[in-house]
Amino acid sequence: MRQFEIYIDGASKGNPGHAGIGVIICQDGQVLRNISSYIGKATNNVAEYTALIYALQEALVLKAESVNINTDSQLLYRQMRRDYKVRHPLIFSLYTQARHLASAFKGFNIKQIPREDNRGADKLATRAVKQALKKTAPVGYLI
Fold this sequence. Notes:
It contains four helices and five strands. It has helices spanning 44-61, 74-80, 89-102, 119-136, and strands at residues 3-14, 17-27, 30-42, 66-71, 107-112.
């Protein structure tokens, strides 16, 4: 069975603010994909869910049968496990999309990990924001 270990993170500079996502997809200890993408202005929770959606979509493209998602977001973890209700309309829309994508796999598991164990995905999310801000900074402005 094609099983992937996936690390996800979202970053928002300001909340809401410029946001990015980071995803690392691994199989048998080997990194298959690093995804770093700027998503515009968003809250941290929107960035976290967007990272999950990107990860699940990419895993489907790579023909994964089972995924283990690793996140340092307690809210996303508990909402996806249905321990917490999703009340915000925008988050609910992203949650519904993520649940739908998750249902496409024979196996879906999500685990909350310490922030220090998620440094790779965090670095990718932060890099996406920093690169986007460099492109939009006025000439002569130092970031």
